[in-house]
# Entry
Amino acid sequence: MKAPVAVALDAPDLDTAARWAGLVAPHVSTVKVGLELYLRYGPEAVHRVREAGPARVFLDLKLHDIPATVAGAARAVAGLRPDLLTVHAAGGPAMIQAALEAAPETLITAVTVLTSLGKADLDAVGLSGPPSAAVRRLATLAVGAGARALVCSPQEAAAVRAEVGPEITLVTPGVRPAGTATQDQARVATPERALAAGADLLVIGRPITGAADPGAAAAGVAAALGAVSAGG
Ligand SMILES: O=c1ccn([C@@H]2O[C@H](COP(=O)(O)O)[C@@H](O)[C@H]2O)c(=O)[nH]1
# Structure
């Protein structure tokens, strides 16, 4: 069984992203195409990483606009058949519903509060209180609108799980293997802790793709999580 990990393919060029996808696909369930790759290469980015190895494709575009625009955007990428597609929960219930209707075959995944934001950042944008309160509020809103998957940090995963129940898929970026740099992430935990807190899919980018051997790094994370991967 592959590890429940989405490797963020945040590469400056498509050859690099496809190479990483090929290296990690034997070990992880999912590869993630984000804004950097999609804005530069468009649908070709999805096609290339899908060709590179057997893994689910997570299209992390974090759509956030008026409902009609998000519906159009979700429809525009639905034909690529991404397994997951992100929207911002803060776009509100009508926007989330618009995405759900526009891409019914895709797991629309609502981002609560970006994992790069700490308490001081939230205070600065007028969301005072602990990050977990804003995360839980947005999680409840998104699930109420029909979302079946959420993004939160591993630090809130247990609280969100308690709030939304066992059926909702929890996706957690902000995952850092012990001893690795947090970089621009603020609310982090190790892969083991994220899984124990109830996360279903751990998003890990630079700790894997920045390693000398991304395939070995992915295999190491998979082993730490108890997954047996095809590549050994
Ligand atoms: O709240 C969020 C939502 C999405 N992301 C994305 O996850 C990866 C994380 O990469 P690392 O290199 O492991 O930090 C990246 O693609 C983000 O766009 C997130 O970090 N936080």
Q: What stands out?
A: DSSP finds eleven helices and eight strands in the chain. The chain has a mean pLDDT of 96.
